[in-house]
Amino acid sequence: MQVEGGRIFREAWIDGVQKHYPDEPKESYIAPWDEMPEWERSSATTVHDQVRAFVRATDGRTDQLNRTQKGRFVALCWTGQIFKHFPDPKPAYVADWDELPRWQQETDADIFERIEQESQAPRDHQQPQP
């Protein structure tokens, strides 16, 4: 697990919060990497790696997903991390996609797209010949 990926995730999160959050965000929402709890740094790194693996496993064809699909993927991976680190999390921490506030949905989609951009290697989209 490379910390650099977690930092990319966190930077994308902060950028998304600053862009989409309707009011002044909580300090914890925009806290720098070094001020985050260890579980959250580990989770950010893990979710970054999950998104990157998905992008690479599809040869970058995640570019065909819409923003909702991309955001849902990030949200679901993050929910898995919450369950990993908290035996009885608050329902709001594990809310399903449709229950998340719009700003968080948009931020999750932004995170996916940031990781997608940094993960893609040049590729050829030609269809395989039968």
Folded structure, characterized:
With 130 residues, the chain is an all-alpha fold. It has one domain. It contains 4 helices and no strands.
Give a concise summary.
The chain has 130 residues and is an all-alpha fold. It has helices at 3-20, 38-57, 67-85, 102-119.
Distance between the termini: 38 Å
The averaged pLDDT comes out at 92
Query: Which shape, going by the Cα principal axes?
Result: globular
CA-atom Rg in angstroms: 15 Å
Please write the string of helix (H) and strand (E) elements.
HHHH
Category by helix and strand content: mainly alpha
Give a count of the beta strands, DSSP E runs of length 2 or more. 0
Q: What share of the residues lie within helices?
A: 55-70%
Provide the domain count: 1
Low confidence ranges: none
Strand content: under 5%
Q: Helical region count?
A: 4
Major sheet: none
Q: What assembly state would you assign to the polypeptide chains in this entry?
A: single chain
